[in-house]
Amino acid sequence: MKKPSQLEEEINKRKTFAIISHPDAGKTTLTEKILFLSGAIRTAGTVKSRKSGKYATSDWMEMEKQRGISITSSVMQFTYNDFKINILDTPGHQDFSEDTYRTLMAVDSVVMIIDAAKGVEAQTKKLFKVCSDRGIPIFTFINKMDRQGRDPFDLLEDIEEVLGIQSFPMNWPIGMGNSFKGVYDRIVHKIHLYDEQREHHSFQLESDDLSNDDLNGLVETEQILELQDTISLLNEAGDSMNSEAIKQGKQTPVFFGSAISTFGIPAFMEHFLELAPEPQGRKSNEGYVEPSDNDFSGFIFKIQANMNPAHRDRIAFMRVCSGKFTKGMEAWNDRTNKSVKLAQGQQFFAASRGNIDEAYPGDIVGLYDPGLYQIGDTLCGQKNTYSYGKLPQFPPEHFAKVRAKNAMKQKHFYKGVTQLAEEGAVQVYKTVKMEESILGVVGILQFEVFEQRLKTEYGVDLEIQSLPHTCARWVSDDKDLKLDSPNYLVHDQSGKSVIIFESDFALRWFKDKNPNTELYD
To answer: Rounded to two decimals, what is the model's pTM?
Structure first.
């Protein structure tokens, strides 16, 4: 048998995944507990912890701490049981879903968290569809079992009917809420007992024999009998676990637990590390690129300005796809058709970061960006150049005119607007005659984030005038257009002509009056 190369060994050590959920399902809490169990942090923070002063590691923006929500995707890299883990903690709020969609392009699997009391919620459905369309393996963690919630069978039915994916319960809960006693691991035949004091214990059983005397006094007899009947039913009538279907994103392993009490997370991680795929290959315009290809390649999926307010720097997040990244190497940017030196690679731990000399497929590397990169750029070795294609950009649904309150701050205003637009969080347009700045966003809360970041990071107070407009379309030719006054003809950041329409009716009216003009999403 051929011995794996060093590159293949490094690839097999890595797991790169995102955590997705509807807001408040427990996504950031689960991330914190995984970090805590790995030894990466000494104490786990919470999303809302003003009293303790200990905030979630992945929530590093000041506004995230104040609001108790994740606003931007965070990257955390650490070691867990000899595996090199790259977790991408994504915003759950729908107003920041564009950042989440792009982040999902950079992972090999996804952990989907579902609230046991609420089941599959709206934002979960949207994020699941993105994963499903790409065939990303999905692992489900049903959270908050220590609170009263829906029947476990109802939750599984919800997953299968609403999301359209086959489910396989890896463990099964014993009770719920006040009567929650733990879970039974169907794979390794182990009982994990829940303790409110968080002194959880486990018992190894003989095969699937659930009549262990050690459980007497710890679990109610009725609960043991109910568990026996349920496991028997699942074994006889339920679907079997199919590792190939899991890899294709057609079956999701389901785990029950409680992130806030850390219950069920060690067992979840044990199974996840065994089942989750190592870094996968990626399609390019020149064919499929395997991670084990010796030639280096990667792509930029996120740009973040001012992560370190003291240095006012800008970082481009690169997913390594193939070969080996080494500090100071030369790479080719397919978009600019120019060579670039990757001088200083950064490894992330939320807002913290440190220099790295090398990285392998699956790793996320931060590159100092003086304006060289854009989201979607492909970087590859000098010998064979290709492109992984552009990342999705979503048409804005909300618009507002913005300007600096203090005219003396115009230079800082334009710098801030330009840099935050390059992050992809907002789209900036200039009116043709007056050159007024108009922001377009997918979610209205992004205006508030934009305003606060301009003030704290660039020292600029804004005046924001909301507009009633609802959609934007790129236009191939802006000459001789018949355009109603409420609608705006503007130019985007690259100088292309865009029309911002007040309503769908206005859009239809324009098409009727300009039948030969082509519009693009």
So the answer is: 0.83
